[in-house]
Amino acid sequence: MAPDDPPGEPGAPGLRPVSPLEQALHAARALVLADLVAREVAEADVVSLVEESVTHRRWWVEQWPDGAGFLAGLVAQDVQDALLERHGRWPLCPVCGTGDPHALDVEPELGPDPHWVCHKAGVKVAAVGRLGGAVPS
User: Fold this and answer.
1) How far apart are the first and last CA of the chain?
2) Could you tell me which residues are beta bridge partners of residue 116?
3) Share of the chain above pLDDT 70, in %
4) Whole-model pTM?
């Protein structure tokens, strides 16, 4: 293999190209992890929740390959639901400064280009994976 050969290309013995399914799963994992890190909740047990979701969603998208573009939102929702059961609401809304703390929701629930949305204020707060650039809480 020449130093300029990219991994998975001809000339790279034993390496195969990463499938579109795996690329979509890795991208969804990375986006949700970025949001967890941005909100400082990326502890080992929480990262395990991401891995559980990715495992479940791998099977799901194998059954419905056209759903690959929806993986980021679905993984985000899976992790949000699991965190609610174990740790409480996440991610808390950084927009509403008064009233009871509330979590953001993922929209669309099943669709491409998922965003974290505050229904109380009626605004998109950040794309999934971009909570680090949202208004600080």
Assistant:
1) 49
2) 106, 126
3) 87
4) 0.84
